Amino acid sequence: MNLICKNRSIHENFEILLRDLNVILTVTQGTHGNVNTNKLKQLGIDIMSHIKTKFINVKGEGWVPINHSLHSMCAHSWELFEMCQGPISQFSESAQEHWNKFIARYKSGTGARARQHNVRDNTYDIFSRMLIMTNPIIANKRRQIKCSHCRQIGHSSRSITQHSYGPSTEERAIINGFYI
Fold this sequence. Notes:
Layout: H1 8-29, H2 37-54, H3 68-84, H4 94-107, H5 119-133, H6 136-140, H7 162-165, H8 169-176
Helix pairs in contact: 1-2, 1-8, 2-3, 4-5
């Protein structure tokens, strides 16, 4: 970071910005339900004003372009929490995307398990296979991923950055302040 931020004040402003972005990302991606939307709204306003006021070059022009996704997260994530009445992470598309590889494997190719003579039978076989895979008895027989670092089931030490880059105690206290 010393190569990027040669000025100490810019370095401190950058650290504050990263801390606040980490807090808002942790809160919005969390699975807790009761989020104080007023605090979340204020944090988003603070982040956007911090970017606009603290990161200005000598000519008075902003040198940090604001990405549309960053603006949406900071300015509008509190609205999603109010509309959903709960955690917005429950509306993730990751489960739907997870099925794509299974559907492609069953649908066609050399190892296709679905009937290929018409679309109706092909789709029926794919959905039947999906229902079988979601049966609780069969799902419990699948191999469970276990973390070698914390020994918890459901993630691996490679898939989670929490072990080495988790929030600091200061960030954790700020994050906990967002929940009612």
